[in-house]
Design a protein that fits this description.
Layout: E1 2-6, E2 26-27, E3 33-35, E4 45-47, E5 54-55, E6 60-64, E7 71-73, E8 78-85, E9 91-98, H1 117-126, E10 134-136, E11 150-154, H2 171-184, E12 190-194, E13 207-212, H3 220-227, E14 236-240, H4 241-253, E15 259-265, E16 273-278, H5 283-286, E17 298-302, E18 309-310, E19 323-328, H6 392-401, H7 404-409, H8 421-426, H9 433-448
Length: about 450
C-alpha cells in the first residue's frame, strides 16, 4: 500500500558540482576517524574508554549520562588515539586510529530481535544505531522510554547536490529486516518515502510514501506533516535509508557497519563522485586529490550547503556521514557593487536579479552572506519555500520571545532546524533561523522535561 503526496512549496537550488556518471565506488582509507558528541543532539557523553585503549568496531566509546543504555560506538577496530576536550573539559571528539584489519567487530546478540520488542530496542541501543535516529518533538536522539507513535524513513535526499540512494538488489532483504525490527518498537506504522526516479520497490511491512516536488520534499518533517502531523504528547522517530540498511544488516549478521557511502560534491571539486570510507573519516584523506588547485579559498561543508557543518581540511566527517560539499569561500573576491551586483552569475530568489530568470543555469555561489543581518523587514518570505502547515514567521518570533504557550500553538512540536533551512536561505534579513529553532527546541525541552 502506498500514499502519494505532491509538494508545491519549496525550491531546488541549481548548483554546479552535481554527481554525473558515478562509475565504480572506490574506498578511501583514512589514518584516523573521529566521533563528535555534539552531532548527537540531546546526548551528554560519558567516556567508556581511555586514550591508548584497543577497541573493536561496534565497541562503545561513550554513553549518555542520563540514559546509560544509549551507546555511541567505534566505527573501526583500532586504538583510541585521543579524547579531545574543550572548555570545562567538554568532550569535543574521540579519535580512533584504525588497525590494519579495521573491520574486526564485536558480535551483538541478535536472537529474537525480529520477534521481541524488548530485544529489538536493546539491540538498537547497544549497537549505536539508536543514536543515529532522531525524534519529533525536539529533534533530538529518541527517548528510549518513550512510546513511539510512528516511524518515518526518508528514502531519498532532496537537498542540493545530494546523490540518489543507489540501492543494490541484495539490499532489499536487508531493508525488509530493518522494517520488521522497527515495527516491533512502534504501535503505529513504519513509513518509507521514495521518489519515482529512484525506482525503489515496495518494502514488505512498510507504508510507502510516493513524494514529488522540490526540496524539502525529502525532509522527514515534510513527509510527517503531509501524512500524520505530530501533536503534543506524541513521539515519532525519523531516520534515513542508510540507517535503515544498517539496522537490517545488524539484525541479520550481528555486526555493526562502520563504512559509509559519501557523495563528494560541489563546484570546487575536479570531478564530483561517490566514495566509500569509514564513518567519521578525515576530510583531508576523503578529499585528497579531488579539490581544484585554483588558488581560491574553499569552504568545506560536511553535509549540504543548507544544513551542513563548515569543517576545516584537518577536520572530520560529521553525522549523517553521507555528503561533503566544497564551494568557494568568497573572502578573496573583489566584486563590483558587492551584494548589489546585477551579474547574471549571481543566484537569487528575487526577480530584481537577472539570475532569477535563468532557470536552466547552474550557479557557483560562494559562502558570503551577501548583505547584513537586521530585524525582520519583510513578511511572507518563509511561506514561499516552506510546505509545512504552520506560520513560520510568527513561530520564530514566539521562539525569540520564549513564549512557550505561543510556541506550542504555532506548531513547534512538528519542526526541526532543517525545516527552516530554505527559509534561512530566502530570508532578506539574514537571520540564523536554524540556530534560533534549535535554541527554541532546547529551551522548550528543558522547561517541560
Amino acid at each position: 500500500m502506498s500514499i502519494g503526496i505532491k509538494v508545491k512549496k519549496g525550491l531546488d537550488l541549481h548548483l554546479e558540482g552535481a554527481i554525473g556518471d558515478t562509475g565504480a565506488v572506490t574506498f578511501k582509507p583514512t589514518p584516523t576517524v573521529a566521533i563528535t558528541p555534539d552531532d548527537f543532539v540531546g546526548l551528554v557523553p560519558k567516556m567508556e574508554v581511555r586514550e591508548g585503549d584497543a577497541v573493536l568496531a561496534g565497541q562503545p566509546l561513550f554513553h549518555d549520562k542520563v540514559h546509560e543504555n544509549i551507546k555511541i560506538v567505534s566505527p573501526a577496530a583500532g586504538t583510541v588515539k585521543a579524547v579531545e576536550r574543550g572548555e570545562r573539559r567538554k568532550i569535543l571528539r574521540v579519535v580512533v586510529e584504525p588497525a590494519e584489519d579495521f573491520s574486526a567487530s564485536v558480535t551483538i546478540e541478535t536472537e529474537g530481535v525480529l520477534s521481541s520488542p524488548e530485544k529489538a530496542r536493546d539491540m538498537l541501543l547497544r549497537s549505536g544505531l539508536w543514536a543515529m535516529m532522531t525524534q519529533r518533538p525536539y529533534a533530538t536522539i529518541p527517548d528510549p522510554d518513550a512510546e513511539i507513535r510512528d516511524i518515518f524513513v526518508s528514502g531519498f535526499d532532496s537537498a542540493p547536490l545530494a546523490a540518489a540512494p543507489g540501492l543494490q538488489r541484495n539490499d532489499y532483504a536487508t531493508l525488509e529486516a530493518g522494517v520488521k525490527l522497527l515495527q516491533l518498537i512502534t504501535k503505529g506504522k513504519v513509513y518509507v518515502s521514495r521518489r519515482q526516479a529512484d525506482n525503489i520497490p515496495d518494502i514488505k511491512g512498510a507504508e510507502m510514501v510516493n513524494a514529488a516536488g522540490p526540496h524539502p520534499s525529502g525532509n522527514p518533517g515534510t513527509i510527517i506533516a503531509a501524512v500524520k502531523p505530530v501533536n503534543k504528547g506524541e513521539t515519532v522517530i525519523c531516520l534515513d535509508l542508510p540507517t535503515l540498511l544498517r539496522i537490517g544488516a545488524t539484525a541479520l549478521t550481528g555486526k555493526t557497519q562502520g563504512t559509509t557511502i559519501v557523495a563528494l560534491t560541489g563546484s570546487e571539486l575536479k570531478q564530483p563522485k561517490i566514495a566509500s570510507t569509514l564513518i567519521g573519516a578525515e576530510m583531508k584523506a576523503l578529499l585528497s586529490g579531488d579539490i581544484k588547485e585554483d588558488n581560491r579559498h574553499h569552504r568545506i561543508i560536511s553535509g549540504n550547503v543548507l544544513t551542513g557543518i563548515a569543517t576545516p581540511i584537518d577536520g572530520y566527517l560529521h553525522l549523517p556521514y553521507r555528503q561533503v560539499t566544497v564551494i568557494p569561500e568568497g573572502d578573496d573576491v573583489d566584486e563590483f557593487m558587492g551584494w548589489a551586483s546585477l551579474s547574471p552569475a549571481k543566484m537569487s530568489m528575487s526577480p530584481s536579479f537577472p539570475g532569477h530568470f535563468l532557470r536552466r543555469k547552474l550557479f557557483r555561489p560562494d559562502a558570503r552572506l551577501q548583505g547584513g543581518r537586521r530585524a525582520m523587514i519583510m513578511s511572507g518570505e518563509y511561506d514561499k519555500v516552506m510546505p509545512l502547515d504552520i506560520l513560520p514567521e510568527y513561530l520564530i518570533k514566539a521562539i525569540l520571545a520564549r513564549d512557550i504557550d505561543r510556541m506550542e500553538q504555532l506548531g513547534i512540536y512538528e519542526v526541526a532546524p532543517e525545516d527552516f533551512a530554505l527559509a534561512e536561505y530566502a530570508d532578506t534579513s539574514k537571520l540564523e533561523l536554524q540556530k534560533i529553532v534549535r535554541e527554541g527546541l532546547d529551551y522548550l525541552r528543558k522547561e517541560l522535561e
